Write a sequence for this structure.
DNA sequence: GTCCGGTGGCACATTACGTCA
DNA sequence: ACTGACGTAATGTGCCACCGG
């Protein structure tokens, strides 16, 4: 399956112990700076608030956790950069941060989260793809089972099939069942080599999994 | 060459904030 | 005004690779 990346086929289990990870203390909502996405702070304010955060955290170690929304332009540039490369080297990170007027750490975090979102989306797509494939195989299996039943029934009293060309009875080994149209057909290869018992089901394409939607 | 501690980067899980229906 | 769902920025933790002593 070329569609599926190798890494995604392995499952990793992680056990997290509740209460093990230290979490910051809950803060009263009044301590949170209100930010309206429609009234985004100016770039200067943005930077100032970021630096403010850094200072606060360095002073008492318990900085209020503020969440800043990225502007559309910042998001656009980050997305553009992500399309080119899913990881950044320190120089790229620094220059991108400078360009976006963000801290390098914020750019780094954005890329980490973006990679995680990307992977999640990919996993969901693969899940859908496998579901559809499973459905397709189930259906194919059902039809083949039915075909086997029909062939077994035919074996009890096989009707003589005459060649449409010569009107002569055809050997059983030259007959195959086309699962697509469910019609008995002759197979050229087996007709030439009567000893062959190869069963030609249909074109290989009908056995391929469904195309993964993008 | 090997060991060891420090450091940086990443994946992953989780938390918490902002927005919207 | 309130609330729950959702998206996502931010944080915490563990793992790994690399480097210098």
């Amino acid at each position: 399956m070329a569609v599926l990346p190798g890494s995604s086929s392995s499952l990793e289990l992680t056990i997290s112990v509740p209460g093990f990870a230290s979490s910051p203390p809950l803060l009263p909502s009044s301590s949170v700076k209100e930010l309206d996405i429609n009234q985004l702070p100016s770039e200067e304010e943005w930077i100032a608030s970021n630096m403010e955060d850094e200072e606060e955290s360095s002073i008492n170690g318990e900085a209020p956790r503020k969440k800043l929304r990225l502007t559309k332009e910042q998001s656009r540039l980050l997305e553009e950069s992500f399309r080119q490369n899913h990881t950044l080297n320190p120089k790229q990170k620094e220059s991108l941060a400078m360009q976006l007027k963000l801290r390098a750490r914020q750019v780094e975090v954005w890329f980490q989260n973006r990679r995680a979102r990307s992977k999640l989306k990919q996993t969901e797509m693969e899940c859908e793809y496998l579901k559809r494939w499973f459905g397709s195989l189930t259906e194919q299996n059902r039809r083949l089972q039915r075909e086997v039943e029909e062939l077994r029934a035919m074996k009890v009293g096989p009707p003589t099939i005459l060649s449409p060309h010569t009107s002569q009875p055809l050997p059983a080994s030259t007959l195959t069942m086309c699962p697509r149209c469910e019609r008995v057909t002759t197979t050229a290869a087996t007709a030439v080599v009567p000893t062959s018992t190869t069963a030609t089901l249909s074109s290989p394409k009908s056995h391929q999994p469904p195309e993964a939607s993008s």
Notes: DSSP finds five helices and two strands in chain A.
